[in-house]
Design brief:
- The complex is a heterodimer of chains A (508) and B (253).
- Chain A has 16 helices and 14 strands.
- The longest helix of chain A is centred in the middle third of the chain and has 29 residues.
- In chain A, helix 6 packs antiparallel against helix 7, helix 6 runs antiparallel to helix 15 and helix 13 runs parallel beside helix 15.
- In chain A, the strands form five sheets. Chain A has a four-stranded mixed beta sheet with strand order 1-4-3-2. Chain A has a three-stranded antiparallel beta sheet with strand order 7-8-9. In chain A, strands 12-13-14 form a three-stranded antiparallel beta sheet.
- In chain A, 56% of the residues are buried.
- Chain B has 253 residues and is α/β, with parallel strands linked by helices.
- Chain B is built from eight helices and ten strands.
- Chain B is globular.
- In chain B, the strands form three sheets. A five-stranded parallel beta sheet of chain B has the order 7-6-8-9-10, sandwiched between helices. Chain B has a three-stranded antiparallel beta sheet with strand order 2-3-5. Chain B has a two-stranded antiparallel sheet with strand order 1-4.
- Classes of the chains: A alpha+beta (508), B alpha/beta (253).
- At the A-B interface, helix 3, helix 4, helix 7, helix 8 and helix 16 of A face helix 1, strand 6, helix 5 and helix 6 of B.
Chain lengths: 508, 253
């Protein structure tokens, strides 16, 4: 039996995987969403590779292969499909499957002091294994060489209240010629921890991949589990998810614009925007019990109802915030010294964004009309409800304006879901989730505040979760260095804040 | 710029009152426990996704591990576990976060006295993320907004550990951050305090110790104050810092 994932599945020998993926991109304008490696040796199959593509029709296509465990390698897909570059490095680190001919086969997830030849996502490596640090050479990172060239190391611990990452700027004077980001400091091994665990246990982990996109993660995970269990949540639960997902986008987008002002040292605006964000988070706590919307969604439905009082409260608060946010953004755009810092700074080229699979705000600000609520409508969304907010400039200002435009869309969506809610009988908020289909995979997709958020879940022959792969929108980190090249080093915080990616989301 | 100033002039005072009045919330709280009603059915322990509860002859709850998901409250057949009010309060020792209460050792209680004598009433804080989900970090950031305004307590965040009295640690202490966090602590001059923020810094929960994740801040650093919660609210983080310098005492839920 094959599960109704809606995905077209194409199995090829591992020797032709690169050609098959390249052909799908070329001939059918497919876009690589995520690639997952699996260890299926226990089932007598070897290592699996699953390249999941989005088709322009809105459908999905999965190109799959099995790699011989005696010689775990395959021709790298990256040269044909550059968006695969980080995925292949990740699979190499975690499963020890070698992408032959990868243009940049360095480590990604595991750091230099991890011993050679040990791959934590292999099934014969116990989850609680304590691994000693291995001696390792210190190698130059950026590779930029020449007279007057400097390498500036920054991080992993930064000066502000922010997450850890290491940046190596190579440049002459203040101009950055090359940036290399070394990430995965907050790698917690969440995917390994999920294997063999109960649906509820994995939910607690999914919600904490990243707090700022917590509900999007919970809903992506829930959608994958619901497919595997053949369960459809009740209409009321779907609408409640819709309202709260848009409240998640609101507090993030409003807060992200406020933080952007910090990158341009406009402190007054940081405070004004911060107050708006705070009010939206207190609204979350008031109607759903949590400032970051933890514990709200679950497979099969939701754990909180939005009663009449909550509905009225949400409607009232978003009316107020809409007025204030309009005046706030208007005031920002009237501040020439601020707008000047943003304009033309940190341009992400559309071609680079497409090649490397950028999603979310970053993609839309560079002219790519990609929004999962439109391309892969889920929950209460219909394709006609959301028109992707797109700009062509690709700079810091464009990313701010895309967010501002999307805030308006979120207000409209929340109102439309709230309008429908009273007509839907309270009834069942959680549809019971029975056993999961054995030996299958399914995928859940949401548009988190940062962009397309894909959760890929595979079950073993007993229906237990055997592989959990999370591709958050923060994979956009792969394109950030391209937007920094040619800019001044002191503009990096501003550019970085305009992407507003989380490290925790990427690192897992 | 003028429009921003005009907006400022029109705005009301947004700073919250102190002592903090917890906002009315539904669900998602650490439970309060009534031993008289507990029938030791174990329903709570089976429902807890993070193994914070054990019912093995007697009930025990580790508030450092609790992620406030409320599942135990939902399944408790006797009402022994009920929704708490507001947020779990910070503690001067890991033991103080156990339910039923364990008396903290005397040395722990002396800390507040010492810290106050040396550091006085003002604190410079350095935050370090040791591998969190970024929730605690956002809440620490929220303490600096105009609503929570941590600076009114004489507390300020500084850019370097060399300037700091307190290290505020979030996260599980991942393998990839262990060395950087240790070096940050080593860079601080004495006297110095360590405050663990959130369930994963307090205990590693809900993540699992393994090849990548650790068991919280105490595995690497001498933790003085534990602030439970997932994440703790900004008010709880402020309380934890005030507790560290003895400006408030330890309270219980």
């Amino acid at each position: 039996m094959r599960l109704e994932t809606g995905a077209e599945r194409i199995t090829v020998p591992s020797s032709t995987i690169a050609d098959a993926c390249g052909q799908l991109v070329r001939d059918r304008a497919a876009r690589l969403m995520v690639m997952t490696g699996t260890d299926e040796r226990d089932a007598g199959r070897g290592y699996g590779l699953y390249f999941l593509f989005a088709l322009p029709s809105g459908g999905l296509a999965s190109i799959e292969t099995m790699v011989d465990p005696a010689r775990p390698s395959y021709p790298s897909v990256t040269r044909a499909v550059p968006a695969a570059h980080w995925y292949e490095r990740e699979v190499k680190d975690l499963l020890g499957i070698e992408p032959e001919g990868h243009p940049d086969p360095r480590r990604l997830v595991l750091h230099d002091d991890w011993p050679r030849g040990l791959h934590p996502l292999r099934k014969d490596v116990p989850g609680d294994l304590a691994v000693a640090r291995a001696p390792h050479p210190h190698e130059p990172i950026t590779g930029v060489r020449g007279e007057g060239v400097m390498e500036v190391p920054v991080g992993p611990i930064h000066a502000g209240i922010i997450e850890p990452g290491h940046f190596r700027f190579g440049g002459v004077g203040e101009v950055v010629l090359h940036l290399e980001a070394r990430l995965f400091y907050t790698h917690r091994g969440i995917e390994k921890s999920a294997e063999g665990r109960s649906i509820e246990r994995v939910l607690a982990l999914a919600e904490r991949i990243c707090a700022a996109c917590s509900l999007s993660h919970a809903v992506s995970y829930a959608q994958a589990i619901e497919q595997l269990a053949g369960v459809t949540p009740a209409r009321r639960a779907v609408l409640i998810r819709g309202v709260l997902l848009e409240l998640e986008r609101l507090y993030n987008h409003v807060g992200d614009i406020a933080n952007l002002c910090a990158g341009a040292a406009l402190q007054l605006a940081v405070y004004q925007g911060g107050v708006l964000k705070e009010r939206l988070q207190e609204l979350n706590a008031e109607v759903a019990g949590h400032r970051y919307l933890f514990g709200v969604a679950r497979p099969g439905g939701v754990r909180v109802d939005l009663d009449e009082v909550a509905q009225l409260r949400i409607a009232a608060v978003i009316d107020e915030i809409e007025d204030e946010f309009g005046s706030y953004v208007g005031a920002l755009l009237e501040t020439d010294s601020f707008v000047e810092r943003l304009t033309g700074t940190g341009v992400l080229d559309r071609g680079v964004a497409e090649d490397l699979g950028a999603v979310g705000v970053a993609a839309r600000a560079s002219g790519i009309p990609l929004d999962a609520r439109h391309s892969h409508p889920y929950g209460p969304f219909r394709p006609d409800m959301v028109t992707p907010v797109v700009r062509s400039e690709g700079d810091v200002r464009a990313r701010m304006l895309v967010r501002a435009g999307e805030v308006a869309t979120s207000f409209a969506l929340i109102r439309s879901f709230l309008d429908e809610l009273p007509a839907v009988a309270p009834g069942q908020l959680v549809t019971p989730v029975g056993p999961l289909a054995p030996g299958q995979w399914a995928v859940g997709i949401t548009e988190s505040p940062r962009g397309e958020n894909v959760h890929w879940v595979m079950t073993d022959d007993r229906g237990a979760i055997t592989r959990y792969r999370v591709r958050s929108a923060s994979y956009n980190w792969a394109v950030v260095p391209f937007a920094v090249t040619g800019n001044l080093l002191p503009d990096f915080p501003l550019i970085n804040k305009s992407f507003e990616l989380c490290y925790a989301c990427l690192d897992r | 710029m003028l429009s921003l100033l005009r907006r400022r002039l029109r705005a009301r005072v947004s700073t919250s009152r102190w002592p903090a009045v917890p906002a009315p919330t539904v669900g998602r709280q650490q439970p309060v426990f009534d031993p008289a009603r507990c029938d030791l059915s174990g329903a709570c322990a089976s429902a807890c996704p993070v193994a914070a509860i054990s019912v093995d002859g007697s009930f025990s709850l580790d508030r450092a591990r609790c992620i406030s998901c409320s599942r135990c409250i939902e399944v408790c057949p006797t009402g022994a576990l009920a929704p708490g009010i507001g947020f779990a309060t910070p503690a001067l020792g890991r033991e103080s976060l156990l339910e039923p209460p364990v008396h903290p050792p005397a040395a722990v209680r002396e800390l507040a006295e010492r810290a106050r004598a040396v550091l006085g009433r003002s604190l410079h804080v350095r935050h370090v993320d040791a591998g969190s989900c970024n929730g605690c970090d956002w809440e620490i950031s929220a303490t600096t907004n105009a609503v929570h305004d941590i600076q009114r307590f004489g507390i300020d965040f500084v850019a370097s550990p060399r300037h700091a009295d307190v290290l505020l640690v979030t996260g599980t202490m991942t393998r990839n951050l262990q060395i950087a966090v240790r070096r940050t602590y080593d860079a601080m001059s004495e006297p110095r305090l360590v405050v663990a923020v959130g369930a994963c810094a307090c205990s590693g929960s809900p993540f699992e110790p393994g090849y990548a994740s650790g068991e919280g801040a105490a595995a690497e650093l001498p933790v003085d104050v534990y602030i439970p919660g997932c994440p703790p609210r900004p008010e709880a983080i402020i309380q934890g810092l005030l507790l560290a310098v003895g400006r408030i005492g330890e309270a219980r839920i």
